[in-house]
């Protein structure tokens, strides 16, 4: 599911000098409000957050493996997924909009050089105000999400109910959705990239147990809304 | 967090949620929420902190706090402790004194 083996090869390939940690119970969501990836948090020397979770990348380039897209078969849409507008954005229009990827590393460098004087370092009140909205529905969604993950292996029907509940309760939480969709994709497509097949296979839409799918939700997200611009 | 009973101690609640139970109430960073009672009660504390509780077949999932309408109630970083690829625990607090950038990513 989300154990060490899912990430081990990627971490080994990067050979990082920093700690690489696993978060199977999604502490980053509960403690910081992370709802999508990649998300970055800045914390100063005194243990004070100076930027709450936001989209961030090491550079403006996001290369995909050469064989990745060819290995994913034709996908359909969830029967109950929102229908895109005829003149609406394409998937990549949404995914590549919002936060400017190439600027993020320089923002970090500015903070490293200037500390609290950096224009990117936020005050505590700004950090709190900019963190993810959290209603009681969102708290309930988090509880359902934890149960869904716990039950996935042993009680699939119950897990799917809990996943659908958390998707309804916090529809802006991409982590909840992509976790559920990728768990099925690993099974229905499998292979090295099965987890990226986050929709029903073409022709198997009736078997899809979730309310929506990645492609449908992305193209019905406003341009700039998937990775909001925060710098 | 998921527990098999709501009958837990204040210390167990603190370990799972990051909210310390003090005479002035449930506290995280500089924020304290009055609890109004002398004996720790999970349901009462969860309700005061806006933590939803969902039960399934004897498992109780307690959601994170929802007070002040934002995920963060304080800018003080929480006591994050996660395991590395080999299962060894790593505490965010061990990096105190350095600037820290945490990157959340997923293998999909």
Give a description of the structure.
The complex is a heterodimer of chains A (231) and B (108). Chain A is mostly helical. Chain A has one domain (4-219). Helix content of chain A is 42%, strand content 6%. Chain A is built from ten helices and three strands, in the order αβαββαααααααα. In chain A, a hairpin with a 5-residue loop joins β2 (39-43) and β3. In chain A, α7 (136-151) runs antiparallel to α8 (156-169). Chain B has two helices and nine strands, in the order βαβββαβββββ. Chain B has helices spanning 10-17, 42-48; strands at 2-3, 20-22, 25-28, 31-33, 53-56, 59-62, 81-84, 89-91, 100-104. Chain B has 108 residues and is α+β, with helices and mostly antiparallel strands. In chain B, a hairpin with a 2-residue loop joins β2 and β3. In chain B, the strands form three sheets. Chain B has a three-stranded antiparallel sheet, with no helix packed on it. In chain B, strands 2-3-4 form a three-stranded antiparallel sheet. In chain B, strands 7-8 form a two-stranded antiparallel sheet. Chain B has a domain at 2-70. β2 of chain A pairs antiparallel with β9 of chain B.
Give the strand tally of chain B. Answer: 9
Structural class of chain A: mainly alpha
Question: Main sheet of chain A, how many strands, which sense, barrel?
Answer: 2 strands, antiparallel
**Neighbour order of strands in the largest sheet of chain A:** 2-3
The whole-number mean of residue pLDDT values of chain A reads 94
The end-to-end distance of chain B, rounded to whole angstroms, is: 24 Å
Low-confidence runs of chain B (pLDDT<50, min 5 residues)? Answer: none
Question: In this structure, how is the largest beta sheet of chain B organized?
Answer: 3 strands, antiparallel
Mean pLDDT of chain B: 94
According to DSSP, the number of beta strands of chain A is: 3
Q: In terms of quaternary structure, what is this?
A: heterodimer
Which strand order do you get reading across the main beta sheet of chain B?
A: 1-6-5
Helix-strand makeup class of chain B: alpha+beta
Count of discrete alpha- or pi-helical segments spanning 4 or more residues of chain A: 10
Helix content of chain A: 40-55%
The CA-CA distance between the termini of chain A, in Å, is: 34 Å
Q: How many domains of chain A?
A: 1
What percentage of the residues of chain B does DSSP assign to strands (E)? 25-35%
